[in-house]
């Protein structure tokens, strides 16, 4: 593999796993690594390879071009001059909305129905409105974002005609406003939550302003204006770039929809472009490497475009450029069922939500197979989809629910998920207990290798990550055979265990073009002089999708998998027994589903070792 030279020879795996899967993977002599999988297929790598990517690169977007007068107005507003002072001869208008926005992203009908029945519903968990703490830091993070960000307004709007929902919306609003009468240090005034709240108020204003009480409408409009002014002053204090982007989006929307909002609009557009430029990489992936973060940014921009449409104004062309960058990486993490892979705390977000989001974005594109800066590799082979985490975890300042998942993979065939990661850390606080979140972010909760059950990157509290993987080498190439057929070969390594054990983890994955066979080889290779004596415990974990029936082989080296669609697959280990253990998988609603995992465990010398395995569809 380019850039990596083992300090000493690595033992080859020699036991034969049986005639049903062919010869196990071994190390070939010479400077170029090869496997017997390639030799059996008479495959040779094509000369073109994908250049290794090591670091995330920032995308840069310039503010919309404006004339000299608007540049002065934007500068003056940024310096704190109020909009009324920029035109002293014009009578200042009372707070009012200039247009009604058509919501482009309908909410969850079931959650809206639960609201009308007196409950918040999130990730499968009901919380009575009367029992919710609307102030103070007592809510779980998902409920904080739902309640303080007023995302529930979309759900309420989706479940029934407006006249049947306005009383519920006004009642919950009044409870929230009574609990949060002014800005304070609670999560209610986190910049990201305020941004989402203001944007929701503006888009769903008919739900909140349709009552007969004119004084109540006037107070609400004043609260909207005061919230926008608070964001003007505090948007730069956001905890991360995603929250800042939410704040700038709301500022821009307020500039569009509130009277005398032109200076705020100019101010918001410039800030939004800078924030998004700092948030995403050159290939369009958010720097948190979170698919949920990717979805959130797309949703924000789609809703902002609806605000432009409401006032019959063209959105800056940069917004369409950004959406065209954001959608392909998100599609790269979709499986054959159309749902999302379980990466960086995400669960299997269902296909319907993704389809609605992509349709609303107006972007028509294909998945990005090599999201190098974002860090994910995707291989399509027949009906099979392979996803691989081939990059270091996100740095702390971008991380919300960071996971130590380097070199983990997921595999699906058609609509069936075969190998998965547990996922769901971002959903903890619903049906998934908060105390379980740390475990779901660990390396052992992902389909990869661990040493002594230590994480390849330290998992800290509050969703952050510590030291560990800092560099990943990646080499991807296409293999072709003289007699037809071929495969895609991904070889990657990380240095997460070098400091503690003096070993680097290398993983080779070879997926046939027909999608019926995935060969893998995991190597622990000495890196430096540390750790040459004694033994260590190694575990390779392969978390299984839901509803898969298992039958262990007689020799202990194989397991047959019966998928819900009736197909049979066989997993074989090249050297050590395979055991079956309990596992967990978070579905698209954030509900924990009991599943199982295949585990290969061994005690090996600290000088390193090689593990080969194979997953093959039975004919």
Summarize the structure.
This protein is of the alpha+beta class. Helices cover 29% and strands 22% of the residues.
**Number of H- or I-type helical stretches:** 16
Lateral arrangement of strands in the main beta sheet = 1-10-11-12-13-20-17-16-15
CATH topology category name of the largest domain: Glycosyltransferase
- 3D shape: elongated
The rounded Rg comes to 26 Å
State which percent range the strand residues make up: 15-25%
Total separate domains: 2
The CATH C-level name of the largest domain is Mainly Alpha
* Beginning-to-end CA distance, first to last residue: 33 Å
Structural class: alpha+beta
Largest sheet: 9 strands, antiparallel
How many strand elements? 20
Reported CATH architecture of the largest domain: Alpha/alpha barrel
The H-level CATH homologous superfamily of the largest domain, spelled out, is Chondroitin AC/alginate lyase
Give the fraction of residues assigned to helices. 25-40%
Low confidence ranges: 1-41, 47-59
Average predicted local confidence, pLDDT: 87
